[in-house]
Every structure is written in structure tokens, then in C-alpha cells.
Design goal:
It is a single chain. The protein has 236 residues and is α/β, with parallel strands linked by helices. It contains eight helices and eleven strands. The strands form three sheets. Strands 2-1-3-4-5 form a five-stranded parallel beta sheet, covered by helices on one side. A three-stranded antiparallel beta sheet has the order 6-7-8. Strands 9-10-11 form a three-stranded antiparallel beta sheet.
């Protein structure tokens, strides 16, 4: 007896032609019109990945799904949605990520991480809540991780994190809090942030990246190292 695996498709809601080039690693279906939104809904399932940088197209999608039940996959919004939209988004998509500027990786790097086999171990963005003193991080598989400010103690040379200057860089390997950078190898030492899944000692030794520039530790990078080669390619 064979088991049929559902096909995962990526739908890019955008009126910008260059967006297709940015997200080429995901081989997305480009959806640039309201009519096309209604057409692709019939092709989607709970394994689909939706990426949108156009609020009107997102609103059209939500309207098209209003009478439907179940999950229609995951959603990445390249803008800050209205507060009232979040419950509606959460109803139709089992994981929702949103942001802009330094709170989210640049589109080309974002695409690299979303397509990476070790995406669950990388970060694509996050948001800071100064009132509750928490930092919410989004992994490349769109899983959410919320940690308190106290998880980031002063560094050995006395540098303290500046949460108002939060950014993610280096294709998801680095979180920056002002002058306080954290490479993924450093983050694995923090219990609440460590790797998404256990990695055996044998696998670690087989996939060590070069030493971390910030702390000198080795970075476990999985099947593919994203912190250097994509950046070189993007700048070429």
C-alpha cells in the first residue's frame, strides 16, 4: 500500500514583477490580479505557502475563503496587517508571519531560508513587545518562539541588548539587538531559543560551518550553509 503525499505549492500575491525573481527558489505561482486570486484558491490545500506584499490581494483572498472551512496552509505577509485582520488570518492559515523593514529578512534572503532544508533552525523575522518585555521570533518553518528580554544577558564585554533596534540578518543566522549580535551558534546556548530539533553528535560533526565571527564557536548548519554563499550570490 502506498501513501500519497500532498503537494506543497507557493502562491505569491504581488503586482511587482521583480518579486517573482526574489522568490524564484520557491518556484511560486505569481498571482497579480483579483480574478487570479479566485482561480488559485481551487488549487490550494493545507500544505500551501502564501506570500503577499499586496493588502488588496490578501483581502480578496480572505473574502474568497470566508465560506470555506479548514486550513489553507501558511501565510507570510510582507507588510504589517491591520489588527482586525489577524483573527481572520489565523482562522484560515495555521501559521501566519508578518512584518516589514528590519523585522523581516529581505525578500531574496527570505526566499532562500523558506526553501532551505534546515529552515526550522533559522530565523526569518520577529517582533518586540516592550510592554511585556518579550521578543517573538519566527523560524523558517514559520513556527513562533517567544522569549523574555531576560534571555539575553549582557555580553562578556558588557554590551547590553537594544530591543528597539531588533533585526534579523545573515540569511537567518543572526539576530541583532543594536550592537548586540547573536549568531545561531550563540543562540543554541540559550535553553528557550536552542535548535528546533535535536541534532546527533555524528550529524553535528559532519555539518560544521566555519567558526562564528562573533564568538568563535562552530555553527551547525544542516545540509546547506546559508550564512555566506547566498549573500555573495545576491551581491553579484
Amino acid at each position: 500500500m502506498t501513501t500519497k503525499t500532498a503537494t506543497s505549492r507557493t502562491f505569491l500575491l504581488s503586482k511587482r514583477r521583480h518579486s517573482v525573481r526574489w522568490f524564484a527558489p520557491l518556484q511560486p505561482e505569481h498571482v497579480s490580479s483579483i480574478q487570479r486570486v479566485h482561480e488559485v484558491v481551487a488549487q490550494a490545500n493545507n500544505h500551501s505557502l502564501w506570500i503577499s506584499d499586496e493588502k488588496p490581494l490578501t483581502d480578496t483572498l480572505l473574502h474568497a475563503l470566508a465560506s470555506r472551512t479548514g486550513s489553507w496552509g501558511t501565510m507570510v505577509l510582507l507588510y504589517q496587517p491591520a489588527l482586525a485582520s489577524i483573527p481572520v488570518l489565523s482562522r484560515h492559515f495555521h501559521r501566519v508571519v508578518f512584518g516589514s523593514g528590519k523585522g523581516l529578512l529581505p525578500p531574496a534572503e527570505l526566499a532562500e531560508v523558506l526553501a532551505a532544508p534546515n529552515k526550522a533552525d533559522l530565523f526569518i523575522g520577529g517582533m518586540v513587545d516592550a510592554d511585556s518585555k518579550t521578543l517573538t521570533l519566527w523560524r523558517g518553518d514559520l513556527a513562533t518562539l517567544t522569549v523574555p528580554f531576560t534571555a539575553f544577558p549582557p555580553s562578556g564585554d558588557g554590551i547590553t541588548p537594544d530591543f528597539s533596534a531588533f533585526a534579523v540578518s545573515d540569511c537567518g543566522h543572526t539576530i541583532r539587538l543594536g550592537a548586540y549580535p547573536l549568531r545561531r551558534c550563540c543562540m543554541s546556548m540559550i535553553p528557550s531559543i536552542g535548535a528546533a530539533s535535536p541534532v546527533s553528535a555524528a550529524k553535528k560533526s559532519a555539518h560544521l560551518a566555519p567558526p562564528c565571527d562573533a564568538c568563535g564557536s562552530n555553527v551547525v548548519s544542516g545540509e546547506r550553509t546559508l550564512d555566506r554563499s547566498p549573500r555573495r550570490r545576491l551581491r553579484a
